[in-house]
Amino acid sequence: MTGSKHPKTNIRNIVLRKGVKRGYRRRPDLHPLRRGSLRAQDLIEFALVFPVLMLLLFGVIDFGRIFHVLIAISNAAREGARYGVIYGIDRSGGVYTINESVIDAAAIQEAGNFNLQLTADQVTPSCPSSCGAGLPLRVVVTDTVTPIMTIVFNTDLTFVRDMEMVIP
């Protein structure tokens, strides 16, 4: 049939004449009436997964804050004890006494390096038995954290860290 009016009929020409783009394949599950129900299904799945993702995200943030506070108060107790055995003990007259304000200031300054605000009430220096050469000096630092996720942790969390160093 040479010279016919119509070009050779093939699948490609049919697809192009109907206005469908080249290379597009229609999926049988994307029927025009079902497209809205797929969007609704996606929305429902998102609504079910979103709270779990938020719980996980805020849990990670809370544990990060808790570890930050633990590291900060541990370093504050260590710095308070280290500074206390050198400068916080008054050795005049053969009697060893604790200068609490010096030890408190050292621990508070170290906690400030971690953007943690401590007060002198949260730092407690003491000598377990008595103060003297070769005996330990103990510094106890406490801090309270209010978690973001009060759903899981109903109360504030109080953390205590202590450090002992021997007085030279």
Comma- or semicolon-separated keywords:
alpha+beta, 3 helices, two-stranded antiparallel sheet, 168 residues, three-stranded antiparallel sheet, 43% helix
Strand order of the largest sheet: 3-4-5
The residue fraction in helices comes out at: 40-55%
Shape: rod-shaped
State which percent range the strand residues make up.
15-25%
Major sheet description: 3 strands, antiparallel
- Spell the H/E element sequence: HHEEHEEE
Structural class: alpha+beta
Average pLDDT over all residues: 84
Distance between the termini: 113 Å
Radius of gyration over C-alpha positions, nearest whole angstrom:
35 Å
Strand segment tally:
5
Word description of this protein:
- It is a single chain.
- This protein has 168 residues and is α+β, with helices and mostly antiparallel strands.
- It has one domain (35-166).
- The chain contains three helices and five strands, in the order ααββαβββ.
- The chain has helices spanning 11-17, 35-87, 100-112, and strands at residues 89-90, 97-98, 123-126, 136-145, 157-166.
- The longest helix is centred in the middle third of the chain and has 53 residues, at 35-87.
- The protein is rod-shaped.
- The model has no long low-confidence stretch (mean pLDDT 84).
Secondary structure elements and pairings:
Layout (H helix, E strand, L loop, with lengths): L10 H7 L17 H53 L1 E2 L6 E2 L1 H13 L10 E4 L9 E10 L11 E10 L2
Antiparallel strand pairs: 1-2, 3-4, 4-5
Helix pairs in contact: 2-3
Put the structure in a nutshell.
The chain is of the alpha+beta class and 168 residues long.
